[in-house]
Design brief:
By secondary structure, the chain is α/β, with parallel strands linked by helices. 45% of the residues lie in helices and 14% in strands.
């Protein structure tokens, strides 16, 4: 059985003090939840402080991005070695990185390679835009993103995938549970063809895009969905705790 994964992507929100306060509010309750792996992904500036606060905790720490070179003249970038000093997980290929910072499949691929080499567990984000969805190109786009992101990657150990339809991120308009489940099943079949059925069945594939306490159950009830990459709701302690708790109850009821 795949252990459900709930990751909170805080994006460009919270000062260091606010990040620490949010973790303090959630920490005790999150540690009570069984059968769910929980990850928080604050901004880079808060990683060291949050790491110290989570020392000895069951809550995992993740970064929101990384660069693909280990060191060098890349002003403002954060290398995989720097991330690996602090974190276990790293988000790679988020649609906001692809859109605002023009990250191509080639760049995402280099970041996946660098993350795995550094011993990090990447959460690879893929998903289609609204116009692609409406044109019936969801599977075509997802398959291409999957292929380009994982080109030349031989070992997927520790890697998770987050299916995040771009039109659902931050819009309050999540995908329908069955629809998301179908696309995630398609992703799993693609992984099976490329890496074998065992790896595909062991891989955790998450849903992301306007996940909230109100709709979490709809997604967690789906057999192919192994958790969620949560955006705005992860900044609200009660919301995030509810999503994690619902996931624990639903996935262990099966």
């Amino acid at each position: 059985m795949r252990v459900p994964l709930i990751a909170g992507n805080w994006k460009m929100n919270t000062t260091v003090a606010e990040a620490l306060e949010l973790v303090k509010v959630m920490k005790g309750e999150l540690e009570k939840v069984t059968g769910v792996e929980t990850v928080v992904c604050p901004p880079f500036v808060s990683l060291a402080a949050v790491k110290e606060l989570l020392e000895g905790s069951t809550i995992r720490l993740g970064a929101q991005n990384l660069f693909f070179e280990e060191k060098g003249a890349y002003t403002g970038e954060i290398s995989p070695l720097m991330v690996a000093d602090l974190c276990e997980y790293v988000i790679v290929g988020h649609s906001e990185r692809r859109q605002h910072f023009h990250e191509t499949g080639d760049i995402v691929n280099k970041k996946i390679m660098a993350a795995l080499k550094a011993g990090l567990k990447p959460i690879l984000c893929i998903g289609e835009r609204l116009e692609e969805n409406e044109a019936g190109k969801t599977e075509e786009v997802v398959a291409e993103q999957l292929s380009s992101s994982l080109a030349g990657v031989e070992d997927l150990d520790g890697l998770a995938i987050a299916y995040e339809p771009v039109w659902a991120i931050g819009t309050g308009k999540p995908a329908i549970g069955g629809q998301a489940n179908g696309t995630i099943a398609f992703i799993r079949r693609n992984i099976a063809r490329a890496y074998g059925g065992k790896i595909a069945q062991e891989m955790r594939i998450l849903y992301g895009g306007s996940v909230s306490s109100a709709n979490a159950a709809e997604f967690m009830q789906q057999p192919e969905i192994d958790g969620a990459l949560v955006g705005g709701a992860s900044l609200k302690a009660n919301e995030f705790l509810s999503i994690v708790n619902q996931t624990s109850v639903i996935k262990h009821r099966k």
